[in-house]
Amino acid sequence: MQRLGMPDGFVSDASDVAGSKLCWIERPGVNYGTVPLLLVPGLGMTFRAYSWLVPMLSPERRVLIVDPPGCGDSAELADSMSADAQARHLLKWLRSTGIERADVVGHSMGAMTAARFAAAAPDVVGKLVLLSPSPDGRWPELKQHMWALARGVFREAPRTLVQATRDYVTADPSVMTGFSDELGRSAQAVLAGVQASVTVARGKNDRVVSEQWCRALADAVGASMRTVPRAGHGLPQQCPREVAALIRDA
Length: 250
Description:
Rossmann fold; 34% helix
């Protein structure tokens, strides 16, 4: 099945997970001995957020990109849209695919989901890469994040804004409820139970998540923190080559 904007070499699929439709795209790797890579987009985003990144990734790896619950062609969850609930949902789906081990990358709100995924499945996740992890736990109110997002718009690449706007307008409103559930969560709480090797990355010009927040996340698990020069919040869209290197070296 083909979807508009799907990267070359990928196929689209969907399945019923506990009564909710989950959609994803994937590319088979040429080396079946490598660990698959799971990419989780940010708030309201679809697989398109990683469209510029995937050509930079090694063709040897199997790559899967989900439409998170409530985004793209995936249905929202009935009970909760928190990062923990989404992580449990994605874990059920991943197990249904037969994948036993994976490295996981999450961007923005997707980084929160990825972290909780790793905590829920320490036997599954070997490496965890958190890109521009949001919401910033130092800001407990939604209006603070909306203001930060507005301030950072002019530091993003035009293609980031086009892609994000396109995805936002089709996202279910429940995604904002899930984001609100994460407000004020401490770095220790975000990464509680995570046993994977962790890398945290942030764009130097990011106004949505602060250096202090990303450093707190890294310090919570003794992880490395990377700063990408001349980059805003949309790291996978704006600096795909640098992000691919981060994933390779994680």
